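COMPLEX REQUEST
Ligand: PRP
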Amino acid sequence: MKMENFNFLLKDEKFDNLYIVNHPLMKHLLTHLRDKNTKPALFRTITKKITTLLSIFASYELSLQKSIRETPLESFEGYIINEQIVAIPILRAGLGMIDPICDLFPEVSVGYVGIQRDHETAIPHEYYYKLPDIKNKVVFLLDPMLATGGSASYAINLIKSEKPKKIIMLAIVSAPEGVSLINKNHPEVQIFTASLDRELNFKKYILPGLGDMGDRLYGTI
Ligand code: PRP
Ligand code: URA
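STATUS: Structure written out below.
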């Protein structure tokens, strides 16, 4: 059998720890997500599909344990994931990413961090914090938009103080400014994204981006 190499996961040259999922299905879904005519119901569905794809690639380093089982015909050597996983969405928009994580990892425990950017300054403000025990566990930090990186960096500081084994961030759309900040403040955190966009505008929104993720998810425009 001839094996071919497919480059479905691009490791960015400029930013350490940035991984871009480069798959035709991802590009297709992201195009519909960005489209301003996509209504909230479809927007939520696409968000879940994109998160599923991101999760598949973001979990590529999870450790496995051999497990001897029986098929109806004979025994076989299988594998099960040998990590305790915690998902932490940043409220509110991160909530749109939680269902697919719970589907893929039924044993997952979920914590919540509520952070909102100030409308004028884009400085993050914490309003809610409830985490399960995350010590020595693998944390998937969920926030669809990595813009200035202020919210994610703030959340990572909180999470790190609870001593997890590893933090992996899933961001649907990322701006260079945000990736740069996470790489500088938290170089050990891997970021998996569907797109590295061009820049931020004067209001610190991502260009081309998709607008306000929370508003589009929950019909609050
Ligand atoms: C959005 C988004 C991120 C944050 C990203 O949340 O969901 O959390 O902005 O921006 P940053 O990288 O510049 O911090 P927002 O503050 O709008 O709150 P919301 O999810 O409740 O709408
Ligand atoms: N938050 C969003 O929802 N969208 C952006 O482009 C930036 C921050």
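REMARKS: The chain has six helices and 14 strands. The chain has a mean pLDDT of 97.
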